[in-house]
Amino acid sequence: MKEHFLTFRKYQYFLKNLIIKDIKLKYRRSILGLAWSVLNPLLMMIVITTVFSNIFKIKVENFAIYFLTGSTLFSFFAETTSTSMTSVLSAGSLIKKVYIPKYIFPLEKCLFGLVNFLFSLIAVAIIFLIKNYPIKWTILLFPIPVMYTLVFSIGLSLILASLCVFFKDILHLYTVILTAWNYLTPIMYPYEILSDNMRRFMKFNPMYYFVDYFRNVMMNGKIPDLSTNIICLSISLCTFVVGVIIFKINQDKFILYI
After folding, report:
1. Which of 82, 102, 108, 100 is closest to 253 using CA atoms?
2. How far apart are CA 247 and CA 59, in angstroms?
């Protein structure tokens, strides 16, 4: 562990520069730049609120805030895992030339996604102010579900990045899985409208726990109980450990396929 920690410290400057490079590339030639991290969730909220509140008549109190709190966290997860899949492949030319710990590349995509997520929280704050929604002290606990989601995303990203090196079809398959995952998570609809069978199925959806935790501290002023924290922590750590193991077993073979 000490050796891995020292290696990470050695390359943390490189990691920081990769994140800065990705930020510059994402908003290159964009007039508004980082403002899109705020505008994008706001515009999406307007569209979804119009469709689901007025057309489908889904009745959720403070639907705009309900949707935005769920969608920002899920978008964070979706962005990190999607971009991490090709991170090792995209860095193939660099990996072949110099030694760099290969986990740096999916990790960097996850941290870059975290930066974008933090900017998107400005959109959440704006809606809170526009709606004059009461701000509870529990909002200070929002880093907890965010960290659960980040650790879970890093673990899944390591798995996906490993698989993508050997099976590039996973790129197309995961797009479909992510779309289904989004609709199977209570983001645009309340959990209460689900049937008993769907509610039982929802217990196997990690993002359900993270989104519900995030909403509770942001919107409802509730502190999730110990069992909820144990579930979230277990999901995150187990996925992270499995991801590290799979990545470590396969990383020496990457050079043959990239």
Report:
1. 102
2. 44
Q: Taking CA 128 as the corner, what is the angle to CA 124 and CA 132, rounded to the nearest 5 degrees?
A: 170
Q: Which two tokens stand for residue 151?
A: 């650790």
Asked if 63 and 52 count as a contact pair (C-beta separation under 8 A), the reply is yes
Place of tokens 């008549």: 57
15-35: pLDDT as tens digits: 888 888 887 777 666 555 666
Rounded distance between C-alpha atoms, residue 90 and residue 164, angstroms:
11
pLDDT block averages, 10 residues each, the chain of length 258: 64 81 72 66 75 66 86 94 91 82 91 90 88 90 96 96 89 92 90 86 93 93 93 96 93 82
Distance CA 254, CA 88 (A): 8
Full 3-state SS string of the chain: CHHHHHHHHHCHHHHHHHHHHHHHHHCCCCCCHHHHHHHHHHHHHHHHHHHHHHHCCCCCCCHHHHHHHHHHHHHHHHHHHHHHHCHHHHCHHHHHHCCCCCCHHHHHHHHHHHHHHHHHHHHHHHHHHHCCCCCCHHHHHCHHHHHHHHHHHHHHHHHHHHHHHHCCCHHHHHHHHHHHHHHCCCCCCCHHHCCHHHHHHHCCCHHHHHHHHHHHHHHHCCCCCHHHHHHHHHHHHHHHHHHHHHHHHHHHHHHHCC
**Which pTM was predicted?**
0.89
CB 144 within 8 A of CB 125: no
Exposure letters 11-21 (e unless 16+ CB within 10 A, then b): eeeebeebbee
Looking up tokens 């050079």, which residue turns up?
Answer: 255
- C-alpha dihedral (115, 117, 123, 124), degrees to nearest 10: -130
